[in-house]
Amino acid sequence: MPKDTADEAPQSQNIETDFCIIGAGAGGLALASAAAAFGQRVVLIEKHKMGGDSVNYGGVQSKALLAAAKRAYAMRTASSFGVRGVEPLIDHAAVSHYIDDVTAKISPNFSVERFTGLGIRVISAAARFVDRSTVVAGDYRITARRIVIATGSSPIIPPIPGLADVPYFTNETIFDNTGLIPHLLIIGAGTTGLELAQAYRRLGSRVTVFDSANALCGEDAELTVALIARLSDEGIFIREGVQIKRVSGTAGKIVVELQTNSVSETIEGTAILLAAGRKANITDLGLDAAGVKVTPTAIKVNAGLRTANSRVFAIGDATGAPRYAHVAGEHAETVLRRSLFRLPARAKARIAPRVVFTDPELATVGLNETEARAKYGRINVLRWPYHENDRAQLEHETDGHIKVITSKHGKILGAGIVGAEASELIQMWSLAISQGLNIKAMTEWISPYPTLSEINKKAAFRYFATVPSNPFLRKVIALLAKLG
Q1: What local confidence, expressed as pLDDT, does residue 260 receive?
Q2: Where are the beta strands (DSSP E) in 306-463?
Q3: Is the pTM of this model over 0.90?
């Protein structure tokens, strides 16, 4: 009896290409568009939404929420400028609509149609390696000269007893909320946790943040203290060094059981947000078949982002690198330079800025003081406060300071800024470090007056304040002064 061909599984369509990129987040999209621009055949595979986490679940949405919250805060605090402060009427549904509108305006830049128009073959399916040079996705079997894993990361769900039985938010779901949250409980006092804590507090919520370690653990404590003080002043309760024993309750009534040292207590809120870190999306990819080695948390890569399989690269969150869209974009550039131009490019983790977009902002790049002392021994630490800046005074943005680290000979090793517009001000130091500049170079540009950027130049000049402490140089300066 003849076989009924309608019941047969469809045959895979074979595709041969130059680049097969798994994941259409920041790094994958940057690499796909650049490779296509250089005439390469590109297949881009995405099983969910184009644009990844930054566009769809966090980077854009959290900054939009913070922007709305900043306006509410400005209305409350306007009296110091001679404008009567008022309590704003917050329409939470309208705020949610604003966030959706911003996302909708940005999304076309990351759409399937746009990348198809660039000549890129986009496949909407899950990808899996079947051998060292072949990936299957949906009805397609793709063989590529180079395969790049750019699968991003997902929120960690901590193993807290009872958590699975209560409703909770992550950064992937919190923006579905369209109403006031009377008391938001946040697990995790890292970047995401504190950004959303301040946004929701300014929009009318009571907020309590829990962390088993210190807030912003890993950042320079000298810089974080000003930020944590501001958050506390705004009424955000930050509970550091606590252990969460259990979570229980239902929607609208969540109970967290804590233990600090030997003291137990319970705190009740109306919703809970998990911001306890992220994990690389590296499961179900068939990495064993590809000969790609992994650690318990990420894909192993060398400085050029190549895996144990010379055909396969990994970029962005999948490598365990700092989880920022701009880091993934820089990784894409590294892979492109290595694979197309045969250049010895290396991932530049040290010059990737890190930013907490709270108010005040916290931005850092390069080595911090502890790291610099461990590596170089003798260093110089240069500081300048915001309150000594005229623009900061007229804007009433005097909280914070800049901190610059140099070698004993003045090579710039790192910088950190806590204060208004820190995310913008740090970029000058990123450029300086990337070019290996000496601190002298940071004194030779003209800063318009009055601007916050003047703090960069003022800090740089602090390096030369140490010169008169050298007896020999002091004598030379005195002699030159007499000759003049």
Answers
A1: 86
A2: 312-314, 354-356, 361-366, 379-385, 401-407, 412-419
A3: yes
pLDDT given for residue 4 in this prediction? 40
Helix, strand, coil shares, percent, the chain, to 5? 40, 25, 35
Q: Are 318 and 154 contacting, i.e. CB atoms less than 8 angstroms apart?
A: no
Closest C-alpha among 258, 218, 264, 217 to residue 239: 258
pLDDT (0 to 100) of residue 7:
40
Amino acid of residue 207: V
- Helix ranges (H only) for 405-470 are 422-434, 454-461
Q: Within the chain, which residues score under 50 in pLDDT?
A: 1-9
**How far is it, in rounded angstroms, from Cα 475 to Cα 387?**
34
Which residues are within 8 A (CB) of 208 and not within 5 positions of it... i.e. 6 or more apart?
Answer: 183, 184, 185, 186, 236, 237, 239, 267, 269
d(CA 91, CA 402): 37
Q: Give the C-alpha separation, 99 to 113, whole Å.
A: 23
Q: Up-side HSE of residue 193: CA atoms within 13 Å toward CB?
A: 30
Position 345, amino acid: A
What's the pLDDT score for residue 2? 41
- What CA–CA distances, in Å, run from 146 to 172, 282, 340? 31, 18, 10
Give the dihedral of Cα atoms 371, 278, 22, 137; nearest 10 deg. 160
